[in-house]
User: Fold this.
Amino acid sequence: MIWALISSLALVMTVPALQPMPLDTAITVDPASGGRTFDGVGAISGGGGNSRLLYDYPEPQRGQILDYLFKPGYGAALQMLKVEIGGDTNSTDGAEHSHMHTATDLNCDRGYEWWLMEQAKARNPRIKLAALAWGAPGWLGTFWSSKTVDYHIKWLDCARSRGLTIDYMGGWNEKGYDKAWYKTFHAALRSHGYQALLVGDDGNKGWLAADDMVADPSFAAAVDVVGIHYSCGYQGTDKGKSCLNSANARSLGKPLWASETGSQDLNTGAFASTRSFNRGYIDARMTGYFNWPLIAAISPNLRWNTTGLMRAHQPWAGSYQVGKQVWAIAHTTQFTAPGWKYLDSASGYLGGNRDNGSYVSLRSGSDYSTVLETIDAVADQKVSVSVASGLKQGAVRVYATNLRSDNPADHFVRQPDVTPVAGKYSLVLRPGYVYSISTAGGQGHGTAAGKPGKPLALPYQDNFDASPVGKQARYLADMDGAFEVVPCGAGRCVRQVMSQAPIVWRNGKRNPSALIGDVSWADYTVRVDVLLEQKGFVELQGRVGSQGLAPDRVNAYFLRVTDGGAWSLLKSDTSPKLTTLASGTVGALGVNKWHKLALTFAGTSVAASIDGVKVGAVVDASYAAGQVGIAVSQTINARFDNLSVAR
Assistant:
């Protein structure tokens, strides 16, 4: 058994003579204890297009994934959801569409974040919604401006038009803060009738904004929640052991959040996440947590392809994986709710030593829950719990997860209930576990499973006529810029709509691009019809493999053709470096005229064709397989149609 109700006598009788007795930690769960208000545990969709392929999943698998993320008593049971306010620019592993591509444009149905928030609310009407920008369209000029305030207000207007109430708004992700902007935005929120709380500063440099708030009361009045990123460490299974504390932040009397944490694998990240949710409060009195990202619904050649709570990268197969992170989060979310109160006197480190593990206790009315973790312990730990009057004295539910086990049968397992005797009970905790003990009910473990994975079958083709106007084409994932379906003659096509360099989050100037397909595709011909609307170049990509920090750092072959007819067959790598393998000139493509591009791969042979005529062929063994992609030169509008990939 992974826990045991014991008495002191039983412990002495059952432990071998040469084995040390478990360290005993006394915990008194007292409703009179002081403590801050718990705001919830959530996750972030955005900051990288990481939910992109989820939208394209078929039912019932799509609904199952959403249940694991949001449905109470089923999986992660997330209590908050933060989404990206799309900015038509790369924000890690992709770009998300803006609701305003230009100053005169407004579309409240772009992208998939509106849909995702609606799905989350449908499963849990009490979930809190938050939003934050990573980048923004270039027509705004600079981010810290009154134009951006108005832009955010229009985004909130879109949310309201869809029946969504946004509870929290942020500034500019990890780009510092402008005190005057926060003051202006806070005033604008209230003057437009929005009660969303303003989070500042969503930075990764510690509690700097809190220091400024102490010195500037008007800035403090404009920020409702103080949120910082990775306060308990960044990446690695050893993170979360200690969290950054700030006397200035505590003194403000405002909610303190880890407004982004995570960046961890869907399975091994459970160690750091479990520590952080407990120790963030013990060390720094943080009461809200957002894991980045929500899900890894991106192709496996992208950098963060296993990072999130779940993985869902094959919508054509209906395949998905539930990560151990789901159950690590469930140990908090399925036993609490926003508004519960922490009990400071029943929160701390086992035996007073953080190496043994940690525990936090919370209550609501007469219900209470305690979450305990022994991730780094090397021996069993004993806890002796006393329940004070005012709290339920009856049976306590116990759930346990062996975080060191990769067997799903060891995750979020209900144990026999414990019944206190005269308000007291004891537990022995095994090393490497997380436990939840609670008088509250409603917990559960979802049973749905995804289908087996398989490659996207060839031949593959799409003329985009079945895709909704204003949306992204099925399986097409924007890396930079904004590619959306538009009316095109008698049918539809995909258009790159961004016509001005964006306000970037990921520094650098990059060409708009989008990827589609399977990383296992090896020998094939990819064809697409293209139309340039202005002078510049258009590009067809093949055997697209690993991508680095940005879309221009990618292993791939490119066929690039200018409006004047100059063409080049290029090899790209992650350094980034472009190598010209062949080049030449054909008749001018001009503008507003359709042309056909093709790339053929057979073993180490790479051939390029324009309007049905082979213009170049080379032998290069650098890349053996990969996706296909489309691209244009920066700020150029172009159209793409009749995409096909065949052996």
The chain has three domains: 8-35+343-438, 40-322, 460-646.
